[in-house]
Amino acid sequence: MRTTTFDFESPDARFKVLINHEEQYSLWPSDLAVPGGWSETGVLASKTECDQYIEEHWTDMRPKSLRIALDGE
């Protein structure tokens, strides 16, 4: 368990990129357990690298259920 505040801006900080069932992405501190409803994408990197991954992969901000309802995906 972490006993100090996490510095999201530290160049040494490491993050996981998570995804939920609606295909929405999130950054998560690497030393914390993944919260319920979220899964790891396999990306473990700096904030900058994680942000880049999310920007490249999360191209439609709409939740998956809304995309299906509107686009018949």
TrEMBL record:
<feature type="domain" description="MbtH-like">
    <location>
        <begin position="6"/>
        <end position="56"/>
    </location>
</feature>
<dbReference type="Pfam" id="PF03621">
    <property type="entry name" value="MbtH"/>
</dbReference>
<protein>
    <submittedName>
        <fullName>MbtH family protein</fullName>
    </submittedName>
</protein>
<dbReference type="InterPro" id="IPR038020">
    <property type="entry name" value="MbtH-like_sf"/>
</dbReference>
<dbReference type="InterPro" id="IPR037407">
    <property type="entry name" value="MLP_fam"/>
</dbReference>
<dbReference type="InterPro" id="IPR005153">
    <property type="entry name" value="MbtH-like_dom"/>
</dbReference>
